[in-house]
Write a structure and sequence with these properties.
The structure holds 2 protein chains of 2 kinds.
Chain A: E1 4-15, E2 18-28, E3 33-37, H1 44-51, E4 59-66, E5 69-71, H2 73-76, E6 80-83, H3 95-105, H4 110-123, H5 139-151, E7 157-161, H6 169-183, E8 188-193, H7 196-199, E9 204-209, E10 212-217, H8 219-226, H9 231-242
Parallel strand pairs in A: 3-8, 3-9, 6-7, 7-8
Antiparallel strand pairs in A: 1-2, 1-4, 4-5, 9-10
Helix pairs in contact in A: 3-5
Chain B: H1 7-22, H2 25-45, E1 53-59, H3 64-75, E2 79-82, H4 89-95, E3 101-105, H5 109-115, E4 122-125, H6 130-151, H7 154-157, H8 179-208, H9 211-216, H10 222-251, H11 260-285, H12 288-299, H13 301-305, H14 318-323, H15 328-342, H16 350-370
Parallel strand pairs in B: 1-2, 1-3
Antiparallel strand pairs in B: 3-4
Helix pairs in contact in B: 1-10, 2-8, 2-10, 3-6, 8-10, 8-11, 8-12, 8-15, 10-11, 11-12, 11-15, 11-16, 15-16
Classes of the chains: A alpha/beta, B mainly alpha.
Chain lengths: 244, 377
């Protein structure tokens, strides 16, 4: 699988009266998990949407590479998968019907689809719930179904916007185990989260606050450099500093 | 960037839409039950035939001919004749809206008639209700003709040779049965509005429940989404139309003289136009509430008032005559009346067919052009 990379340089985006992003320059590489860490309103979703090509930056640019070679977005797009933060599945369609719908949208052949769907259903342990409608799934199962729809086409790049938001701790751990497996296959994974404990599970984190990048690097090195025991502390300290 | 059309993706969209509809009894009922209910309800209620016009007879002559004349008026079936009001009572009865017309027969009516000088009577008509007044004016010549026939000697009732005479015969709808004309018209209005609503809500719903964001990140293209949304609702509204056709033919006895194939073709073209109009609204508004209001505004009043259903297009000011050309119901109304009552063929209906084809193309192209492939506001 060709390793996909994304580089943003000086990306700014204004949404209405809010400056959602302000000069964001970041690098995302395949292999390992890229975490976008920040509190609510930091600009995580806006950045994700820009990476997915759903929003255009006001300033700055986003560059894509495949196998070390610079490529246009259109080349990466067909094998890029994006999981929005807000619920985006069809409440009245069942788990199996969702998989069939996305199978057709991605144009998967039956011999590719059947084993992959079976694998995903067993890994996510959703097999017994194939016929359950999305509206009747628990929060964790719903997110796992969203992830399955993304993974059906075996993407080269996976953008997950707060996939564990509102999910119980056990389901969250299962979710991360799934992501580790994918990362080992040299898939580019960008995952955003407001859960600071999840930041430490990433191989590289990008701290975002108020539309700006605070810092970027390996979680342990970053904490050591800031002299903080955890990411909680780091963001709380910043919040206190801003308070008049 | 995203060109081309993949049939499999369009089919997947359509199949998904069919599942939504089948699982939502409300939509299904709306599509199949409501039009039939509305057309039956209003079809029975709306009757353009004016009958039982309350007429006060003021007979100052009190002769045999004057009584006979009033009787002929009553016997026509259109007038409900009320008996001779005393003094100037008929005027106050008109003022109080207890009567909508009055027949005033002056003294000497009978004498004039018998002596061959020609007799005249006055007919007062409440002009406040325009449509009733014009209907009454339409009945009077018939009444006069039969009066002439029955009250004058035979030789006087035939016009002298060489004199011009106008004989009217109503074509296609000999009895001017207004149901023959209201039922197809109502069907066009009801189904036109419903089909706009179907598609107007569907794209907006995807925006509102967040699925559009996911959809746009997949390889699916706007044209495929549009085709996948149009096809199932075309089938659904065509089924609704078929039910209405059966109601019109079997329930109301509306005759059908034309070709069923042509009717099916022109119906599909009309439904495609209104469905695309709904899709365009949905693509533009992205919100179900606003889409609904816009659909009502652009779908109900124009098709009710400007399609030629109630008011003939030919008598509108020039600007509005051109304006109605933009409305799919106007063309479908013309085509329906032509096919149902006159048995018009494709040649006679070339203009509506061409106009509907053009509207289909323009509306679909507009919906596709305005379909945004991203989340930019």
């Amino acid at each position: 699988m060709t390793a996909v990379g994304i580089t943003t340089s000086g990306v700014s985006k204004r949404l209405g009266r809010t400056q959602a992003l302000d000069g964001v320059s970041l690098e995302f590489a395949a292999g390992g998990l890229n975490g976008l860490i920040g509190p609510d309103g930091a600009g995580k979703t806006t950045l994700m949407r820009i990476l997915a090509g759903l929003l255009r930056p006001d300033q700055g640019s986003v560059a894509f590479s495949a196998g070390g070679r610079k490529v246009p977005f259109a080349e990466v797009r067909p094998t890029m998968a994006y999981m929005p933060q807000r619920p985006s599945l069809y409440p009245d369609l069942s788990v199996a019907e969702h998989l069939e719908f996305f199978r057709d949208l991605y144009g998967l052949a039956p011999e590719v689809y059947a084993p992959r769907a079976a694998e995903l259903l067993s890994v996510t342990r959703l097999e017994p719930f194939r016929d359950r409608r999305a509206s009747q799934l628990s929060g964790g199962m719903y997110k796992k179904l969203g992830l399955m729809c993304c993974l059906l086409q075996s993407p080269t790049a996976l953008l997950l916007d707060e996939p564990t938001n509102g999910v119980d701790p056990i389901s969250r751990r299962e979710f991360w185990d799934l992501l580790y497996r994918l990362a080992s296959r040299r898939v580019l994974i960008v995952i955003s989260t407001a859960y600071m404990d999840e930041a430490e599970r990433c191989s590289k984190v990008h701290l975002l606050d108020d539309g700006r990048v605070l810092s970027s690097g390996e979680p342990a090195a970053l904490l050591a450099a800031e002299g903080a025991a955890g990411f909680h502390e780091l963001f709380l300290r910043r919040a206190d500093a801003r308070r008049p | 960037m995203r060109r081309g059309f993949d049939l499999r993706r369009a089919r997947a969209m359509a199949a998904k839409e069919v599942r939504h509809v089948l699982r939502d009894p409300f939509t299904l009922g709306l599509a199949l039950g409501l039009p039939v209910l509305l057309v039956c309800f209003f079809g029975i209620a709306i009757d353009f035939d004016v009958r039982d016009i309350v007429t006060v007879v003021h007979d100052a002559d009190r002769s045999r001919p004057s009584r006979e004349f009033a009787q002929i008026l009553a016997a026509s079936g259109y007038f409900h004749v009320r008996g001779p009001a005393e003094g100037r009572g008929f005027l106050s009865q008109l003022d109080a809206e207890q009567a909508s017309s009055a027949l005033v027969i002056k003294p000497g009516f009978g004498g004039d008639l018998l002596s061959g000088r020609g007799a005249s009577a006055q007919y007062l008509l409440d002009g406040a209700d325009n449509s009733r007044a014009s209907a009454v004016l339409g009945y009077l010549p018939g009444v006069l003709a039969s009066a002439r026939l029955r009250m004058l000697p035979a030789d006087a009732s035939t016009p002298p040779a060489g004199a011009a005479a106008l004989k009217t015969r109503f074509l296609y709808n000999h009895e001017l049965n207004s149901r023959w004309f209201t039922i197809p018209g109502l069907s066009v209005v009801v189904l036109g509005l419903l089909s706009i609503l179907f598609t107007a809500l569907t794209v907006a719903r995807e925006w509102e429940n967040g699925s559009m964001e996911l959809l746009l990140s997949t390889p699916v293209r706007p044209m495929e989404i549009i085709a996948g949304k149009l096809a199932p609702y075309l089938a659904l509204s065509a089924a609704g139309l078929l039910l209405l056709y059966l109601v019109a033919r079997l329930g109301f006895g509306v005759p059908f003289k034309g070709s069923h194939l042509l009717f099916a073709g022109v119906s599909v073209m009309f439904l495609l136009a209104t469905l695309s109009q709904g899709l365009l609204i949905s693509v533009l508004t992205r919100q179900q509430q606003i889409a609904m209001q816009l659909s009502m505004m652009t779908g109900l009043l124009p098709s009710l008032l400007l399609s030629g259903f109630i008011f003939p297009v030919e008598s509108m000011p020039a600007f509005f005559q051109y304006f109605t050309m933009l409305l799919p119901p106007r063309w479908f109304m013309t085509a329906c009346r032509g096919i149902f009552l006159k048995g018009a063929g494709p040649l006679e209906l070339a203009q509506p067919l061409l106009a509907l084809a053009l509207l289909d193309a323009v509306l679909i192209a507009a919906a596709a052009a305005r379909f945004k492939g991203d989340l930019e506001p």
